[in-house]
Amino acid sequence: METSAHKEKQFTNQTEFLDTILNNIHDIIMVIDVNDYRILGCNKAFLKSFGLTEAGAKKKTCYEVTHRQAYPCKPPHDICPLGLALKTGKPSVVEHVHFGEKGEVINVEIAAYPVKDKSGKVGQIIHVSKDITDRKRVEQQLKDALESLRKALGGTIEVIALTVEMKDPFTAGHQKRVANLARAIATEMKLSAEQIDGIRIAGAIHDIGKISVPSEILSKPSQLSTIEFEIIRNHPKAGYQILKEIEFPWPVAKIILQHHERINGSGYPAGITGKEIVLEAKVLAVADVVEAMASHRPYRPALGISESLKEISQNKGILFDEQAVRACLRLFTKKKFKLDY
Fold it and tell me: In the predicted model, is pLDDT for residue 119 greater than 90?
């Protein structure tokens, strides 16, 4: 039978063991009284971070230490982990900011664990803060690097687009207008942000393959011969060959390869049908036809938006994707979208 002295010694050993663990953890730990936000206890990492003694810490409230303010957040704000834990009765984890001994900003991930009494009422909160300043710095560096890559990619795309326009000045602005319309259609269809970006990028350079077509064919003011038309029809494949080795985050080369394909298989260069055509290419196809018909070409005057919309409307589900056509029609008839000339 255990004596009371033995139990007391066992309790003391357990307490010392737990204290050893808590004081060798690098995370900042404090126990907070939910009635007045007073600090009931803390570990050495807490004392070191805020330049306090244990006695000094117990004279302060959590908001005085972590937020350097002399007034409480009553009731605690919803972004406060203590407030969330009190509100839900469950552990909460948030990212927050603390201020160090010298006022320096410390990015922290805070976990608040409610401690309940036998009646289920929360009396204390165990507040654990992990310093994530280095992680946030790395995240920002990655974000900045990604933004630089996006800008570089944007510049590259612009150069490619200008290259096409120099080859075929009669359609200057065509790719840009198609890209804007295709992006608007994709947005109206509620496609993912990734798909919308891919469609925009592909639209901006979808005629890159035309640099393989002789200028006299591109600018010919009369009807093309069968051979000349076949050369023109090869431009999606040529564009694919140019771009296929570039590791875009989107299937840009494939979209460009298929942007003249049609649902019923009457398109080119492969004559594929329906589900064989990627959705992004189906969207781009609608935008390309609308812009091309509405604009002037060397061999014909502009046909106008009305004729363009009539063309896609009559051929939805036959040549063109039904969802893409409906989205395009809504843009022009209900949302007053206009091609920017």
Answer: no
Asked whether the bond before 72 is cis by omega within 30 degrees of 0, the reply is no
Give the single-character DSSP code of 339.
Answer: -
Residue 319 DSSP code:
T
Angle formed by the axes of helices 193-204 and 133-167, nearest 10° = 30
Binning pLDDT at 50, 70 and 90, where does residue 36 land? confident
Q: How far is CA 244 from the centre of its chain?
A: 24
Kindly write down the DSSP assignment for every residue of 222-272, as one continuous string: SPPPHHHHHHHHTHHHHHHHHHTTS--SS-HHHHHHHTT--TTS--SSS--
Q: Which domains does the chain have, with CATH numbers?
A: 18-134 (3.30.450.20), 151-333 (1.10.3210.10)
CA torsion sign for 193, 194, 199, 201 is positive
Contact 312, 185 (CB under 8 A): no
Omega cis (within 30) before 236: no
Distance CA 228, CA 217 (A): 7
Terminal C-alpha separation, the chain: 95
With a cut of 80, say whether residue 97 has pLDDT above it.
no
Closest CA to 98 of 54, 59, 52: 52
Classify residue 206 by its DSSP letter. Answer: T
Lowest mean pLDDT among 51-60, 92-101, 182-191, 233-242: 92-101
CA 251 to chain centre: 17
The per-residue pLDDT for 74 is 56
pLDDT of residue 146 exceeding 90: no
Is pLDDT above 90 for 340?
no
Chain mean position to CA 138:
18
Give the separation between CA 106 and CA 63, rounded to whole angstroms: 15
DSSP state of 151: H
Residues 6+ apart with CB under 8 A from 224: 217, 232, 299
The residues, any chain, with a CB within 8 Å of residue 67's CB and separated by 6 or more, are 98, 99
Residues 6+ apart with CB under 8 A from 163: 208, 211
